[in-house]
From TrEMBL:
This is Sigma-70 family RNA polymerase sigma factor. The keyword Magnesium does not apply. SUPFAM superfamilies: Sigma2 domain of RNA polymerase sigma factors, Sigma3 and sigma4 domains of RNA polymerase sigma factors, TPR-like. Residues 111-161 form the RNA polymerase sigma factor 70 region 4 type domain.
Amino acid sequence: MDSTRVEAAITRVHREEWARVVASLARRFGDLDLAEEMAAEAFATAVERWPRDGVPPNPGAWITTTANHKAIDRLRREARRASKQQEALLLRDDSPPEPVGAVEDDRLRLLFTCCHPSLSMEARVALTLRMVGGLTVPEIAHAFLVQETTMGQRITRAKGKITAARIPYRVPEAEDLPARVASVLAVLYLVFNEGYLASGEASDPVRQDLTSEAIRMTRLVRSLLPDDGEVAGLLAVMLLTEARAAARVSASGELVTLDEQDRSTWNRAMLAEGLAIVRERLAVVARGDAVPGRYQVLAAISAVHTSVPDARDTDWSQVVALYDQLAALDPSPIVTLNRAIAVAELDGPAAGLDAIDRLGGPLDGYHAFHAARGDLLRRLERTADARAAYDRAIELAGNSAERAYLIRRRGQLAE
């Protein structure tokens, strides 16, 4: 069989089935380490056998069956205590695997386990990317600019804490579900944002491998929780943002701001899907069947920006009103900063600058705060103050494309 086709098939199956296989093994054997290792070994066996034997008719079931057999063999080899020996003997090699389509809830359990609030946010992100996303430890380490050994230790400690704390492998009870869903969505949003504005000198300014993975996992969550408005809202935010990826960075590696982007290059299919989700959620809210949460409001803001053919057509009064709604849900300095930027478009740079300057110290270490001040000071022709603000923003910026943009804007002050 053609090796290129087999390699493509294995890559596709890994992308589509990894989470299912790991989740199924974790549920059956109750051991995340065993689940991860046996899934990896099953794919390694596929790499060895499929070029010779051909891709099986049901690749996902083949991987699941192989991984289960390998797990049973491992338990038998390592059985040193009577309890383990009994457990291994009770598991039959010829027991049929569960149908691939029947493990959807297992994937949801796995997501909630990886995003348990007792783990640090760093550990949740790393564990989710490894166990649910199927990324390798080197890939995750590269994404977050840490050493492979550090990332490996972080994942190992997280799995150890799950075992030691006896964190249950299940979907939370109804009363705990809203808070736990929020934890899952926070992890996925963090992964997406790291790809959208990747940090670090050695990183590409936009990491579409991370944004794509975040979208894929959010789609998974939505397929399992189709009626959750915040899941839908987060997916819409990601789609409406990712649709603009082709226009976000210039050929010279410089950030292109939303008002300067060539909208003809935006991904129309992603835009249409994101806007459709926003309209769907707005209809639910209008009927009084739900109250929008943070991600739904963020999606509505994105929809205002992306649904018009030209940036000059943006309804800034609606943007400000939506930020007022968001501030009631998330009264953070960053939300206040973004509202102030919208106020500057609606009422002029002086009004926006006044709102930004009232924020004071909490955002002094945030590059976007100084970049926004620099832009408004430039528009007010306060050149020296604008230069100082741009200097501070450049000093703090971690994204190479943003830094290139800020350097150009600062250089234009002399003109």
